From TrEMBL:
<protein>
    <recommendedName>
        <fullName>Cupin domain-containing protein</fullName>
    </recommendedName>
</protein>
<dbReference type="InterPro" id="IPR014710">
    <property type="entry name" value="RmlC-like_jellyroll"/>
</dbReference>
<dbReference type="InterPro" id="IPR011051">
    <property type="entry name" value="RmlC_Cupin_sf"/>
</dbReference>
Length: 117
């Protein structure tokens, strides 16, 4: 066990204006995780996650999660479950949005020989 990151430092890091500020990269892990920051008004376009449930933890700021069923306001401290098969988008509020996503690690692609080859 070891500390991997300090979210307070990641939130306060002005060198990276938008996007992933930290990614879990430990060998042999069973999870994937990303710490993402969006400045005020920026967004992540609509996308569908067909295979994995995703947990999103709002660490600072707030914004809106948009789904086909409507919009949900999210704020600092909220934990949001995004079920597999759901379509969603994110828009940062006036204070920006910093969040951590966690989900099961995807299996890597494997090279296999063709049948009969």
């Amino acid at each position: 066990m070891r500390v991997l990151a300090d979210v307070h430092e990641l939130v306060g890091d002005a060198l990276v204006p938008s996007g992933a500020r930290w990614t879990l990269a430990e060998p042999g892990r069973q999870l994937d995780a990303n710490f993402v920051h969006l400045p005020a008004g920026r967004h992540v376009g609509s996308h569908l996650e067909p295979d994995l449930d995703v947990m999103l933890v709002v660490v600072a700021g707030g914004g809106i999660v948009g789904t086909p069923d409507g919009e949900q306001v999210i704020a600092d401290g909220n934990i949001v479950w995004l079920p597999r098969g759901s379509s969603r988008n994110l828009t940062a509020g006036d204070s920006g949005l910093s969040y951590l996503t966690v989900h099961r690690r995807r299996q890597g692609l494997q090279v296999r020989s063709r049948p009969g080859g």
